[in-house]
């Protein structure tokens, strides 16, 4: 198999591109003769590494014609660079950039200027922690990628790419491929009791884009947004990037507790994960659901219902979505294929109240542009022909087993007081640790053994109320869970002896 780290194509620029770059350079007004400027530009590019060693230059005849210069002018510049050792001529093959070993280290040591961002840019950057390298046991949120039916998926994509209508090469503005919107609508209506028609479905590049659009379109900067505390960092970042006044609202065993929200102003947006709170794993109680719906009506606020992993339920009867619970037009339901299929697909959906369909579609078509319609069509067929349901059903069994294995491995620590979240659904467990435990030290120890141990403190906007680890089990094989789980158990047990 091809090593993905190797460049797919030769890194040397096409000779024609060098001609075009030189034409742009010479078209810019500057002092000096044309020969001198040609020489200086080529020398600078070689020194900067923009023209890597081994790159072939176009012929002097071609360059002269392309640049509208006399051939002698071009030859004068090239001869000088050859004489200085920046270029070399190879008999019968042309002129090439010389391989100068010290240049690479020179360009690497050039001082880089600190980025100058706007103050909004700085604030956005501060809210965007670089995603951890999430691999191995127990990276949260990663599905069992090795079990994804790649062959069937590839066949579908190939066929849809081959058969795509010509219009799909152009810009699109339908809110997503019609068949996919229909398939999503059918699916969420049946499995999540979401109340919608295909028109209300907007296909987006993952849940993250839905959060961004919602924050941009439904709140003004400085407006209050309620965020579950602890909560999902992606949603925290989207709300902060929209310059909202994000108020963390504590989560308890019944989910987000509105009675503990700051009382000074009403929220404009309320972000919740009602089916499976991320990362605590609890379900928002019916009483709280009704309270939130009433509150949203009273304050003309919008509820963002993030239903990211509800495909994976293991015990209780499925809980209906918040969106479908009441005749409310104040809930925006967000779903994603990142967990049920794979995160790199970057496909999700937003189910909008009727009044918001046109504004959201228009903004999406203008700000983000729609595309990848053949992939969307392939996904529609993947769903319609039962591949999706089969894969989810199979993963449900695999994840149920993996969770049981993790519980079994950690059982001795649980017997001593380690508290694990309910785990009735989803792809991770939250392990609560005794107060004062150094999560960072555990995280580092894990990293030394190829494990991802995500500290709970990462999910707090304010002071963390408790210490813990978010343990993803879905993407770890049985062997990995046994091996890494045993190590983790060994590190946790002494913490409960004290
Ligand atoms: C709570 C929550 N919501 C949504 C997502 C999915 O986001 P996206 O569709 O942008 O991949 C995740 C993924 O980790 C998540 O944990």
Structural write-up:
- The chain has 498 residues and is an alpha/beta fold.
- It has 3 domains: 16-107, Arc Repressor Mutant, subunit A; 146-385, Type I PLP-dependent aspartate aminotransferase-like (Major domain) (Aspartate Aminotransferase, domain 2); 390-495, Aspartate Aminotransferase, domain 1, CATH 3.90.1150.10.
- Helix content is 43%, strand content 13%.
- The chain is built from 16 helices and 14 strands.
- It has helices at residues 15-27, 34-48, 60-67, 71-84, 101-109, 119-127, 150-163, 178-192, 207-218, 233-241, 286-299, 357-368, 373-384, 387-415, 439-448, 478-497; strands at 87-90, 94-97, 201-204, 224-229, 245-252, 255-256, 269-272, 302-306, 331-336, 348-351, 419-420, 428-433, 454-455, 467-472.
- The protein has an 8-stranded mixed beta sheet with strand order 3-10-9-8-7-4-5-6, sandwiched between helices.
- It starts with 14 loop residues before the first helix and ends with a helix.
- The structure holds pyridoxal-5'-phosphate.
Give a concise summary.
This protein has 498 residues and is of the alpha/beta class. Helices cover 43% and strands 13% of the residues. The chain is globular, with a radius of gyration of 28 Å.
Topology:
Elements: H1 15-27, H2 34-48, H3 60-67, H4 71-84, E1 87-90, E2 94-97, H5 101-109, H6 119-127, H7 150-163, H8 178-192, E3 201-204, H9 207-218, E4 224-229, H10 233-241, E5 245-252, E6 255-256, E7 269-272, H11 286-299, E8 302-306, E9 331-336, E10 348-351, H12 357-368, H13 373-384, H14 387-415, E11 419-420, E12 428-433, H15 439-448, E13 454-455, E14 467-472, H16 478-497
Parallel strand pairs: 4-5, 4-7, 7-8, 8-9
Antiparallel strand pairs: 1-2, 3-10, 5-6, 9-10, 11-12, 12-14, 13-14
Helix pairs in contact: 2-4, 3-4, 6-10, 7-13, 8-13, 9-10, 14-16
The chain binds pyridoxal-5'-phosphate (PLP).
Pyridoxal-5'-phosphate binds next to helix 9.
């Amino acid at each position: 198999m091809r090593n993905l780290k190797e460049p797919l194509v030769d890194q040397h620029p096409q000779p024609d591109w060098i001609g075009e770059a030189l034409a742009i350079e010479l078209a810019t007004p500057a002092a000096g003769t044309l020969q001198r400027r040609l020489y200086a530009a080529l020398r600078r590019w070689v020194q900067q590494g923009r023209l890597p060693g081994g790159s072939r230059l176009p012929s002097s005849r071609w360059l002269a014609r392309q640049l509208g210069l006399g051939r002698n002018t071009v030859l004068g510049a090239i001869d000088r660079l050859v004489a200085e050792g920046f270029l070399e001529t190879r008999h019968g093959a042309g002129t090439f950039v010389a391989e100068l070993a010290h240049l690479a280290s020179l360009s690497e040591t050039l001082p880089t200027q600190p980025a100058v961002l706007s103050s909004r840019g700085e604030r956005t950057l501060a809210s965007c922690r670089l995603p951890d390298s999430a691999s191995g046991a127990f990276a949260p949120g990663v599905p069992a990628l090795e079990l994804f039916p790649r062959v069937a998926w590839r066949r579908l994509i190939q066929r849809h790419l081959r058969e795509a209508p010509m219009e799909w090469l152009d810009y699109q503005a339908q809110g997503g491929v019609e068949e996919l919107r229909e398939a999503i609508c059918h699916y969420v209506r049946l499995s999540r009791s979401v109340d919608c028609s295909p028109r209300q479905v907007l296909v987006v590049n993952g849940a993250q884009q839905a959060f961004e659009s919602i924050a941009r379109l439904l709140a003004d900067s400085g407006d209050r947004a309620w965020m579950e505390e602890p909560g999902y960092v992606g949603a925290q970042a989207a709300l902060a990037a929209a310059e909202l006044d994000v108020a963390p609202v504590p989560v308890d065993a019944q989910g987000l507790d509105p009675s503990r929200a700051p009382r000074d102003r009403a929220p404009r947006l309320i972000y919740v994960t009602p089916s499976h709170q991320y990362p605590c794993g609890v379900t928002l109680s019916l009483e709280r659901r009704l309270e939130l719906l009433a509150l949203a009506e009273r304050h003309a606020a919008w509820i963002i219902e993030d239903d990211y992993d509800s495909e994976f339920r293991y015990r209780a009867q499925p809980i209906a979505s918040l969106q479908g619970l009441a005749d409310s037009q104040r809930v925006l339901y967000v779903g994603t294929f990142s967990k049920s299929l794979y995160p790199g697909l970057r496909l999700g959906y937003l189910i909008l109240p009727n009044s918001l369909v046109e504004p959201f579609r228009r903004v999406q078509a203008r700000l983000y542009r729609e595309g990848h319609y053949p992939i969307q069509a392939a996904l529609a067929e993947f769903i319609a022909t039962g591949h999706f349901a089969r894969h989810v059903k199979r993963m449900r069994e695999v994840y149920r087993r993996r969770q049981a294995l993790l519980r079994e491995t950690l059982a001795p620590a649980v017997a001593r007081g380690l508290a694990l979240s309910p785990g009735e659904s989803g792809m991770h467990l939250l392990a609560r640790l005794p107060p004062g435990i150094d999560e960072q030290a555990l995280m580092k120890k894990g990293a030394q053994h190829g494990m991802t141990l995500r500290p709970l403190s990462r999910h707090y906007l304010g002071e963390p109320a408790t210490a813990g680890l978010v343990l993803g089990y879905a993407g770890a094989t049985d062997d990995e869970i046994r091996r890494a789980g045993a190590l983790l158990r060994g590190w946790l047990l002494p913490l409960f002896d004290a």
